Amino acid sequence: MSIAWTRIFSHGDELEANEEGLAFYDRVFDELHKHGIEPLVTISHYEMPLHLVKEYGGWRNRQVVTFFERYVKVIFNRYKDKVKYWMTFNEINSGLVMPIQGLGFSIEKEEDKYQPTFQAYHHQFVSSALAVKACHEIIPNSKIGCMILFAPVYAFDCNPENVMYALQEEQLFNYYCADVQVQGEYPSFMKRYFKEHNIELEMHDGDLDIIKEGTVDYIGFSYYMSRTEKKVKTDEEASQGNIIGGIRNPFLKASDWGWEIDPEGLRISLNKLYDRYKKPLFVVENGLGAYDNIEEDGTINDHYRIDYLREHIKAMGEAIEDGVELMGYTSWGCIDMVSMSTGEFSKRYGFIYVDKHDDGSGTLERKKKKSFFWYKDVITTNGDKL
Q1: pLDDT tens for residues 88-134?
Q2: How far from chain centre, in Å, is Cα 47?
Q3: What is the pTM of this model?
Q4: 285 in catalytic set
Q5: Domains in the chain, CATH or no CATH each
Q6: Of the listed 69, 285, 296, 311, which one is catalytic?
Q7: Which of 36, 178, 365, 370 is deepest in the core (most CB within 10 A)?
Q8: Alpha-carbon distance 314 to 294, whole Å?
């Protein structure tokens, strides 16, 4: 789950926190613990206060670092006895393709995107490191991680040009943000990238020391798809559904929305991340967006979702056998909600059906899908019963 920054500081730059918002999460955490549920909490999840976007320009403004540090210290002190697992920024690398969600501003002109994007990232890296330091000081037994959107990048063929292009795409999208947060320094491959795109980061004295000292305890990541790339591609080759680009992979099937389904890619991802960082991993998002139909008897037989999740859970088991240290798994998501990527309610992920539709109609009545009962057995047996 996530805490909404705006519930705690509605504008983001106030000096005093909103007690009503703090009390709301007290009730949430108390209810979770009452049912034996250990919360895993994301601090910032695509919802920075709109005031910070309009008045400060989002994360490209250095002042936001101060506001964020104030926010995290408030929630750490308030919930230090209720939450021990934290993550800083949800899918931090997604700002490369969706800056308004992750960085708090829109790109007006394509040629002007580089400097503000990577300056904003620097501010987030400093903020993440400050949050790690505060979390360890305020909640000594805590674990705090980063969270990235991970999609392994395959070269379309063995042409060395395509292999190199796939490597560069994977370095920038999958590893840049993680390298800084996990290893505590900017990766060497970014030096050339900054030079070629005329990026000069403004840093305060001590920023690099803060980043070095504030490395995360584990890596959380979302996994929905893999990505296939070639250096020169036609419009006809493009993968229609993958929000992070690429071309169609002829070996993979796709979801109703064109997201390519690749369970083996999760095993590959886990191995790549663990080989690179030697830190515990946590799959915190994984699921299938699909159309669900209610049968005449009221049941929802989402066998396709069960198949998707079963194969991905098997892939995690294989990765563990490979030697990967995997802390846990949380699916996306337990209940139907509006899809962030398309704005539709018809793109359903949940184990629980919600009677709500794209046109706004619906009673909000809830129904348990077939996957609900299947997943209940999965988590009861810790994956032994699939």
Answers
A1: 999 999 999 999 999 999 888 776 889 999 999 999 999 999 999 99
A2: 13
A3: 0.96
A4: yes
A5: 1-222 (3.20.20.80), 227-259+278-386 (no CATH)
A6: 285
A7: 178
A8: 28
